[in-house]
Amino acid sequence: MAEEQTTESLAFKTEVQQLLHILSHSLYKERGIFLRELISNASDALHRVQFVMLTDDNVLDADAELAVRITVDEESNTLTVSDTGIGMTREELIENLGTIAHSGAMAFLKNLEEGQRVDEIIGRFGVGFYAVFMVAEEVRVTTRSYLPEAEAWTWISSGASTYRLERAEKVERGTTIEIQLKEDAKEFASTWRLEQIVKTYSNYVSFPVYVGDEAANQRTAIWRQSASEVEDEAYNDFYRQLTMDFQDPLLHIHIASDVPVEVRSVLYIPSGQDRGPLRSRPDYGLKLYSRKILIQEHNKEMLPEYLRFVEGVVDSADIPLNVARETVQSSRAIGHIKRALRSRLLKTLQELGEEDPEVYQTFWASWGAFLKEGVATDFSGRDDLLPLLRFATSKSNGELVSLAAYVARMQEEQSDIYYILGDSVASSARSPHLDYFKSHDLEVLYLVDPLDGFMVQSLREYEDKPLSNVDDPDLELPEEEDEATPADDLAPEALGKLIVRFRNVLGDRVSEVRESKVLRDSPCRLVSSEGGSERDMQRVRRLLEQDYEMPAKILELNRGHPLIGHLAQLIASPSGDAMADLVIEQLFENLLLLEGLHPDPSQMVPRIQLLLEKATAASIGSES
Ligand code: ADP
Ligand code: MG
What we know:
Layout: H1 3-6, E1 7-11, H2 14-25, H3 33-55, E2 68-73, E3 78-83, H4 90-97, H5 103-113, H6 118-121, E4 136-144, E5 153-157, E6 162-167, E7 174-181, H7 191-202, E8 209-211, E9 214-215, H8 232-243, E10 251-257, E11 263-269, E12 286-290, E13 293-299, E14 311-315, H9 327-355, H10 357-377, H11 382-385, E15 391-393, E16 400-401, H12 403-408, E17 417-421, H13 425-429, H14 435-439, E18 444-447, H15 452-458, E19 461-462, E20 465-469, H16 492-506, E21 510-515, E22 524-527, H17 532-544, E23 553-557, H18 562-572, H19 577-595, H20 605-623
Parallel strand pairs: 2-8, 12-14, 17-18, 17-20, 21-23
Antiparallel strand pairs: 1-6, 2-3, 3-7, 4-5, 4-7, 5-6, 8-9, 10-11, 11-14, 12-13, 15-16, 15-18, 19-20, 22-23
Helix pairs in contact: 2-5, 3-7, 9-10, 10-15, 15-17, 16-18, 16-19, 18-19, 19-20
């Protein structure tokens, strides 16, 4: 046979040339991914020959072990990756590694220009093979197809504009890739280093990947087993491997579905925020696999952001390695997987809340705030999120109740769900806003998390019942039965004078002073003049914006309260002015404290001492 027929030089397509130029001339941090790409191709080739053998008896080397073998020679700085997969004919070599069908190269280059990282995207554009040129001086691919009559060929390239094809001597089926490493890529001529890379990226490939004599990969991917075969201990072990969290997870969820999109996933809810010093994951996100090959370490797309506390893996053959060819389908597939994961996760939590309230409390204490963020940000997931919320209430004695439980014990004529925004359960429980609700035995939700003000923006109703803030001055409350003013209530004229006094003392710290219609046991309260959502956001803004100033509030007085009566008498007496002003100041600051709005409570101490001095003096006087 003539020499030209056995050795032949061919040119790469232009965009492949560009791609090769970039890969072989740039410096990359994560060069180890070249091995992931070669193993992924080998694994594909093994799967394909396995499939062919199901129906075709006439396959070369039908008994060969299906495996990948990696060998190194430190001295010559070379590395070999070989498989017993389907192999390639001469035509396939040219088509797959050289000239045609590489629209993916263009797409890949464009993504690189847009600042994407090579290691994050290279496997996705059908150009993964070329990653080898990040580390290779020269690459020789010798391959023999499974077809018994096919001949073996070698493809040789140093990553420049051309490649050579040579007839080869290869007896066994499959592909062998010999890599002459670059000087600066010597690190990859180390068995230890290669084992590390295999464990990181290719640990769950179904075929053994031998580095030297031993298989370096674990192979069993628990997310690809059926849930009934996996022991709890195995789930927990895998969780520890994944997160280095020393505690067991609170729960795991194993998801397996094939229609309309293939998904295999194991998700974990960690038991707490504190996961120990070894915690190895500085960033959040699920590990994303495509047919057991790791394609992304921290995928943030598969779950909504507020579920960032969830750990786990997701694997789908429908997330194509090759986005360029199937963009529309792939984004549809991703959309579907996202919805499936979210809804399974939230449904499982809902069941936990119903079936094991105690564990749910632990969950809520660690991660409840994230779900509140979800209510505020994820409109389409709301129906699944609302059953997960829990609040302390004015009647729950410190226990947390769901909205459903609140609604179930609403009074017959009660139309609204009432809530109070505050700094803590303790201060909310003492709030004057609750006077009316306590005396009418109406339950009030305590929203005491800084995020709650933000959350109620989106939670305006639950099961057609509006949520109403108890400090809303326009709140329509059922009228009292016996509306008649008791005889010892302050007369309108005296109340009028007292209101003027309050206005003078407090100036623009209050927007208005007026009589209250709802107070019972408290002398006064502060209400907001702004509309509902504006009011709920004030607390959030105070946290987020440094120089945010709360707008002045309306002060309401309870004309039936003895203290208000005494004050009215004081300002009517010639010498009572100074004392009255002190009391007014102190009453106002008490309210700020109860609302959780006092900037510096210790400031009140001198005034309180002065008041005590006067009170003790008056007691002695009245006794003598
Ligand atoms: P992708 O794997 O996304 O198709 P690659 O650039 O990694 O893109 O590989 C290109 C093609 O080369 C593969 O689709 C396959 O047809 C062929 N190929 C690469 N490596 C092997 C191998 N070890 N055995 C058989 N075919 C291979
Ligand atoms: Mg590939």
